[in-house]
Design a protein that fits this description.
By secondary structure, the chain is an all-alpha fold. The protein has helices at residues 34-37, 56-80, 83-98, 113-119, 127-130, 142-149. The longest helix has 25 residues, at 56-80. Residues 1-31 are annotated as: Disordered. One of its GO terms (cellular component) is proteasome complex.
């Protein structure tokens, strides 16, 4: 692994404006159906390293964050040995998988305070922290969500 500071530049080689078959209106086969496809990518199911929009700058910024994290782990490995990045990775995995929060309190779409501390993002407020994309979502009560979780 090299100590890369800037992510590799790999722009997409092709882009098409043709709609995919899954997002085509059944009554008009040539038209894109925005109600079925949604306005953009779902921020809840999109991985953290993948950009939500199709803009190349956003994809570059996501790669920048991933490259910065890789550089940090490589520096820790060279300084303290392999145990330090492995320990930090295990702690991060435990905090990501071990916490459950009801949807009315933000759900698991937003990172927990433990995850933010481990990644060093506890002092940063970003757009995704305020506007999570769930403003128009279905409002279910805590009781309904717990019943679904325990399969009652």
């Amino acid at each position: 692994m090299s100590l890369r500071i800037v992510p590799e530049s790999n722009p997409s080689s092709s882009f098409t404006h043709q709609p995919t078959r899954a997002h085509v209106a059944p009554s008009a086969p040539g038209l894109h159906d925005t109600l079925r496809a949604g306005v953009g990518a779902n921020p809840l199911t999109t991985p953290a390293t993948q950009a939500i929009s199709a803009h190349p700058l956003e994809a570059r910024l996501k790669q920048w964050e991933a490259t910065r994290e890789q550089l940090k782990m490589e520096t820790l490995r060279r300084t303290y040995g392999i145990a330090e990045p492995v320990r930090r990775g295990m702690e991060l995995k435990i905090t990501r998988e071990g916490t459950w929060k009801p949807l009315c309190l933000g759900g698991n779409s937003t990172p927990s305070i433990h995850e933010e501390i481990l990644t060093g993002r506890d002092g940063i407020i970003e757009w995704e922290d305020v506007f999570t994309g769930e403003e128009n979502g279905a409002n279910i009560s805590v009781h309904e969500e717990i019943e679904r979780k325990v399969k009652m």
